[in-house]
Amino acid sequence: MLNIVLFGPPGAGKGTHSERLVHQFNLFYISTGELLRKEIADGTPLGEQAEGAIARGGLVSDEIIVQVIEKTIRAHPDSNGFLFDGFPRTYIQAYILEGLMIRLNTSLTCLINLRVPEAISTRRLIERGKTSGRSDDNEEVIQNRMREYSEKTIPLLQFYKDKGIYREVDATLPIDDVNRRIVSVIQEELRKTLFNVVLFGYPGSGCRSQGQALAKRFGLEYVATGPMLEAEIQSGSPLGQRIKKLYDNGQLVPDEIVVPLIEQRIESAPDVRGFLFKGFPRTLVQSYILDGLLRKHDSEVSKAIELEVPAPELMRRLDDRSKTDWGRGPDGHQARIRQRLHDHEVKTLPVIEKYNQRHSVTRIDGNRTFEDVFSAMSRELEASLTRMV
Ligand code: AMP
Question: Taking the complete model, does pTM exceed 0.70, yes or no?
Answer without folding.
Answer: no
